[in-house]
Specification:
alpha/beta; two-stranded antiparallel sheet; 4 helices; about 35% strand; disordered N terminus; binds NADP nicotinamide-adenine-dinucleotide phosphate
Length: about 190
Amino acid sequence: MPRVKTATKTSAPSSSPGRQLRYAVAMSLDGFIAGPAGEYDWITMDPDIDFGAIFKRYDAFVMGRKTYQVSGAGMMGGSTVVVFSTTLRPEDHPGVTIVSGPVEPAIRDLKARPGKDIWLFGGGELFRSMLAARLVDAVDVAIVPILLGDGIRFLPSPAPRAGLSLTNHRHYPKSGIMSLEYAVTYR
Ligand SMILES: NC(=O)c1ccc[n+]([C@@H]2O[C@H](COP(=O)([O-])OP(=O)(O)OC[C@H]3O[C@@H](n4cnc5c(N)ncnc54)[C@H](OP(=O)(O)O)[C@@H]3O)[C@@H](O)[C@H]2O)c1
């Protein structure tokens, strides 16, 4: 029987110093962040995952319009919330910043301000834009032990290639979730 390591840290450096943009999501083993109709019932809640500690790491959240329409911004109360969309009207969404332009200036501006890390909350489409602009510093993926067969991809194609360097991993035995953290490296 193979031994399972838990909460083991590796020493790989992150890709950039300072405030990081981290794409942190739950993913099925076959690479989906939601089912074909946006289902998320398969994302199990493991009692050992400390969501309070995870949220404390961030004070800014960025997300695509589709994620915002599912999640809202309620659980990010008091934090900076930036929603990327060319179709939402800012006046209809007080309390969040709607950005319709290119991703780079908005993220460079956020990174230049003092603060904690920035949670790239999803989804895959926005992640692809951010990756293409070389803005994503880290990928934190909680692999949920299920095969969905179809759905919304963690990273839709076509997308640029990027290197990943493992910085942390943790196994949650109660749910079988495997949490993997990577620094992103660009060539
Ligand atoms: N498993 C998880 O942890 C997790 C986490 C987050 C989300 N999700 C799920 O993922 C699904 C949504 O993901 P998704 O990949 O389909 O969509 P998404 O990335 O959330 O949203 C895509 C939308 O964001 C806007 N957008 C993307 N790139 C942009 C850019 N460069 N500039 C301006 N606007 C941009 C566009 O909105 P407009 O069309 O308005 O222009 C685009 O249609 C939802 O079902 C959500 O529940 C799962």
